[in-house]
Design brief:
The structure holds two protein chains of two kinds. Helix content of chain A is 41%, strand content 13%. Chain A is built from six helices and five strands; from the N terminus they run ββαββαβαααα. In chain A, strand 3 and strand 4 form a beta hairpin. By secondary structure, chain B is mainly α. Chain B has one domain. The chains are: A alpha+beta, B mainly alpha. At the A-B interface, strand 4, helix 4 and helix 5 of A face strand 4 and helix 5 of B. Chain B: This is Cytochrome c domain-containing protein. Chain B: Keywords: Membrane, Transmembrane, Transmembrane helix.
Chain lengths: 157, 215
């Protein structure tokens, strides 16, 4: 049995240590917000946080995540009110929506490390998340909006 | 009986004391020798490299070294720009991951987000190493575009080689990421010679004076 801490909850799973973390999250734990895209770390649909870093769960083995902290889209905020989620909703960023849990998880690392990102910073951070619907301009706009919301939230707290 | 033993001890006390002192000294010498041997082991690689200048042999050895360093397995992580190279044709890494200050990427695009501690199975999957990174921003150690002359000079300049002295240069032949070049994952060509041949050429180049080719 392998112990995984996902969204602050501990799960005991019966899995090979070489199983992709994505399979464990979706098929064994049942959290299906994280998507399978390419399976070879090329598209970013499967991004989750491992100890705060935006890893691609399709190539990250379960063994690497054992005893570490995993955060999926379901755990990004308690009430779907992370500044990024609010901005995504306000701007209606997704079209088909398939890639957007990965987009949000990557953007969350950017905003944590750089609360006031430029267009160039956004490009550097998000270049590994592909969107077949081409929602990139709205993604960029929403990240700028989320940065503002994050600042407002910090000043009111 | 007891008094006889006491008499013997008293009579030969000096001898007993001498034997005791010699025993302690022998133990100390053995311990020091052990410690000294352990220390020497770390120095073997450098101590055995006696520099005997030979510009012809040195330049010939560097030509081999250069072929390896300019192969995709080495050069791809020593790019001229801030984006690593990728593949046997050394194209810019898809997704344009950035070097970052420490050479480990930026934000959601850090090297270890895709590059695992070991190679990912299958073709066109990310090769792995626990320490995957580019040279840092303040010491880029560029190979791409360098002539053999330029690269040889650069490798011997501590201000451009990551502050490496001779000992560190020798050790670098067995660095984990250097060795990873010979374990590149499926679908990638190996450097043009074995690691053993490369290391031999590297040590020959260094031990013959590290001469730079004219071009």
């Amino acid at each position: 049995m392998i112990s995984l801490n996902i969204n602050d909850k501990t799960y005991q799973i019966d899995a090979d240590r070489d199983m992709p973390l994505l399979w464990a999250i979706r098929d064994l734990v049942g959290l299906t917000g994280t998507k399978f895209g390419c399976g070879v770390a090329q598209c970013g649909a499967c991004v989750v946080h491992l100890n705060g870093e935006a890893v691609r769960s399709c190539v990250t083995k379960v063994g690497r995540a054992e005893g570490q902290k995993v955060l999926t889209i379901e755990g990004l905020s308690e009430h779907n009110d992370h500044p990024l989620q609010l901005a995504w909703n306000e701007i209606s960023v997704p079209q088909c929506g398939y890639c957007h849990s990965g987009q949000l998880m990557s953007a969350a690392v950017l905003l944590r490390e750089n609360p006031n990102p430029s267009d160039e910073d956004i490009d550097h951070a998000m270049a590994g998340n592909i969107c077949r619907c081409g929602t990139y301009p709205r993604i960029r706009k929403a990240i700028h909006m989320a940065a503002e919301l994050q600042k407002q939230k910090e000043t009111t707290e | 009986m007891k008094s006889t033993i006491n008499q013997l001890i008293t009579k030969h006390w000096a001898v007993f004391r001498l034997i005791g002192v010699m025993g302690i000294m022998l133990c100390l010498v053995s311990l020091m020798s052990l410690a000294s041997n352990t220390g020497n082991k770390a120095e073997v690689s450098t101590a055995t490299l006696v520099v005997k200048k030979d510009s012809v042999a040195s330049v010939a050895a560097f030509k081999k070294v250069y072929r390896v360093l300019m192969s995709p397995r080495c050069m791809n992580c020593h790019p001229a720009g801030d984006v690593p190279l990728q593949g046997d044709d050394s194209h810019l890494h898809t997704m344009s991951p950035q070097r970052g200050l420490e050479g480990k990427g930026v934000y959601a695009m850090k090297c270890s987000n895709c590059h695992q501690p070991t190679n990912t199975p299958g073709k066109n999957t990310p090769p792995g190493n626990p320490n995957w990174h580019l040279p840092p921003a303040n010491m880029k150690m560029v190979f791409e575009g360098r002539t053999a002359h330029q690269l040889a000079k650069q490798l011997m300049d501590p201000k451009q080689n990551g502050n490496k002295d001779m000992k560190k240069l020798i050790e670098h032949a067995d660095d984990g990421l250097v060795l990873a070049g010979w374990n590149p994952g499926e679908g990638r060509t190996l450097p043009p010679m074995s690691h053993a041949e490369f290391k031999k050429a590297w040590l020959t180049w260094l031990s013959t004076g590290a001469y730079a080719p004219k071009k």
